[in-house]
Specification:
The complex is a heterodimer of chains A (270) and B (303). Chain A is α/β, with parallel strands linked by helices. Chain A has two domains: 9-94, Beta Barrel (Elongation Factor Tu (Ef-tu), domain 3), CATH 2.40.30; 104-269, Rossmann fold, CATH 3.40.50. Helix content of chain A is 20%, strand content 33%. Chain A has a seven-stranded mixed β-sheet, sandwiched between helices. In chain A, helix 4 (174-184) runs parallel beside helix 5. The longest helix of chain A is centred in the last third of the chain and has 12 residues, at 196-207. In chain B, 56% of the residues are buried. In chain B, strand 1 (7-9) and strand 2 form a beta hairpin. In chain B, the strands form four sheets. Chain B has an eight-stranded parallel barrel with strand order 3-4-7-8-9-10-15-16, surrounded by seven helices. In chain B, strands 5-6-14-11 form a four-stranded antiparallel β-sheet, with no helix packed on it. A two-stranded antiparallel ribbon of chain B has the order 1-2. Chain B has ten helices and 16 strands. Chain B has a single domain (7-54, 72-193, 215-301), classed as Aldolase class I (TIM Barrel, Alpha-Beta Barrel). By secondary structure, chain B is of the alpha/beta class. The radius of gyration of chain B is 18 Å and the shape is globular. The chains are: A alpha/beta (270), B alpha/beta (303). Chains A and B meet through strand 5 and strand 7 of A and helix 1, strand 5 and helix 9 of B.
Chain lengths: 270, 303
Amino acid sequence: MQRNPNHTTIVTIEKVIDETPTVRTLVFSDNVMSDALPGQFAMVWIPGVNELPMSVMISKEPDKAAFTVRKHGPASTGLFNIKEGQQIGIRGPYGNSFDLKEGKLLLVGGGTGLVPMMRLLTFVKPTDDVTILIGAKSKDEVFFENLANSILENNPHKVIVSTDDGSYGEKGFVTDLVEKLVDESHFDGVYVCGPEIMMYKTVQSAHSRNIFVQASLERMMKCGVGICGSCCIGEDLVCRDGTVFDGDYLSSNKEFGHFYRNKAGILEKY
Amino acid sequence: MESSLATSIGQIQLDSPVMLASGILGISLDVFNRLYRSGAGAVVTKSLSTEPWEGYPNPTIFSVKGGGWINAVGLSNPGATNFAKMIEPNQKVPIIISLVGSIPEDFEMMVKQFENCKVTAYELNLSCPHVAKVGLEVGDDPELVKKIVTTTKNTTDVPIIAKVGLGTTHYLNTVSAAIDSGIDAITAINTVRAMAIDVETQRPILSNKFGGLSGTPIKPIALRCVYEISLKHNIPIIGCGGVSTWEDAVEFFLAGASAIQLGSAVGDNWIDIFSEINNGILQYMKRKNYSSIKDMVGLAKKS
């Protein structure tokens, strides 16, 4: 019988991988989450701590999935500190996924926004020419570069890393690179996940040149199922109508890139 | 015969008897517009307080195996003042403002924030089961209920609804107190205090431990309450609790409700649920030769 995504399933963390000093990947066995689509998320319960939405990371092993988390607030730090053998609760996967075009593709990921991009890479066709941009603050915080190269080893591809401080790869913001790339050549699809300002600029760069672009959004999320309303953006709920939205829609949305909602639901400026 | 979904709850006139219940989705005017276009007769806002509230940490919601949800969102809301500014441009959506507070002055202050807004009604939350000093703790004190209803009635001419639930005081006493003080309608019921424990990690799942049970498991209880209120009082009633199909809605009408509210069904079936239930009710009315909702209100009491 198919599992009801709303029912909490308890899984045991089998492996913890240190990606950077602040980012870890927690691997677990679950054949539902291993089949999650790129852009979908799980609600992850850290018993006694909190519950938070997490994009579902791929695993090299069959029937396994993972969460890649950066320690930030109490919830993500709680997940970051989970050890091998400890249990967490998961529900989902929730949300829609990317509409993957064929041909020349540009994927842009900032920080843990790379997670849905890695899953999206596993869906590209062998003939697709794929460029992936990895944005990080500094050399210490670069991760998934080798993973991206290994997933794409049979494709024509480029993995470009940029760091804000220039300590590794190209120096500067990933959005400046996006602007340069879409100027230089035509892309059949652009996909982005990361900090909202980064997504906003990427969507603008692509959409203004009539390039198909999609972004996977993150918003304050409590229930994950379209009840609490916390994650609304305009008329839509990120948990239910997203997380993936088209550039067409996003470029006319008055909140995207400008406002977010706090825990009380008040709109605040970025 | 032409059948119409229009209904009256006392002086409140709606194009459809299917409303969005409080606590669900209600923090943005854009979303209200979408719900209205999707067939909601009115939207009830999240319960607003005098100041913004962040609510409880997650987990705030739990899906019960066998149906229903337990939530302890903790009445997170932007506060009455911010909310009033946000809905000021609204002209077309029937918005019912849900209010939560501890003393009559809280309600007076909040109602005054909406002087420049088009408000269809206010709904006093006397029944939230998971936040201290408000909601059910207020509803359990009929003397306090009288003061709050009297003060709110004296502050505005807009209809006032009391939303009651199952607390430690018999809810019919709360209903009587509200009616004695001039309430215009009753919404029954709120979620029912409940909890969930995970057997693997052996701890309560919700961060607040206790929450409110909603959805299909509480529908027969809510229906019984609507029927009881309807037997005892001549007051317009809004049925709330576990409506997920048109048959559920009709059951509430037959028990004595003039309209229904739903929430959990949005989580289960998303926003199309409003038009689905509207269509189902309309087909039923045509089949039974009813021209208006009021033709069937309370029919089950005859037998």
